[in-house]
Amino acid sequence: MNKKGMTLIEVLFATAILTVVMGTLFILARSLGDTVAVEDAKVTTQDEARAAMYTIIKELRQADDSSIQFEEEYGSFLIYSIAEDVDGNGTAVDVDGNLETGPLRAIAIDFTDYNYDTARETQLLLFTLGPTGYEARVLCNDLAPPEDTDGDGIPELGVSFSRWSSDSILVTIRTQRQVGTTGPILNSVMSEIIFPRN
User: Fold this and answer.
1) Alpha carbon distance 66, 99 (integer Å)
2) Of 26, 84, 169, 191, which sits most exposed with the smallest number of CB within 10 A?
3) Dist CA 129 CA 127 (whole Å)
4) Residues 131-165: pLDDT tens digits?
């Protein structure tokens, strides 16, 4: 007796096995996608902080220490001037041996939306004097928004500047990013002690 085809029970059994295998593959793919999204958010927050810190270190190592000013309470901005050959003698030191400095520069959180991109307190800007006045360059886009995490009534900002010692500045950058639209918020904190020039 030669039977061709499959019975209904065999078809149902094969369908059940296929459903379990496909469900498992779907769960694995979704889990892998979630893992990739988390890792991407981690890397992005760390890269934003690292790139901003690199520029700040480079700027402040050239800054005249006596020109550095920062807001004491929150430490949300820093004003300084860097060594610059003002008199054209080929060095940033004048004939009397004094350091020559250029126009004031500033690093600040964009509370006023200076560049009209609506990022505001999550964006860090570097202000330099250009041909048409002060120009802003974005250093970081994912600053952590202001939040009083330690309950002292003073909000911690995405960036803070403070004196570490008489000749050094402590810079702390806090970045954060949400994974997807409903995932967890990942934070990254980077601090550096910088010794300005002179």
Assistant:
1) 11
2) 26
3) 7
4) 888 888 999 888 888 887 777 777 788 898 988 98
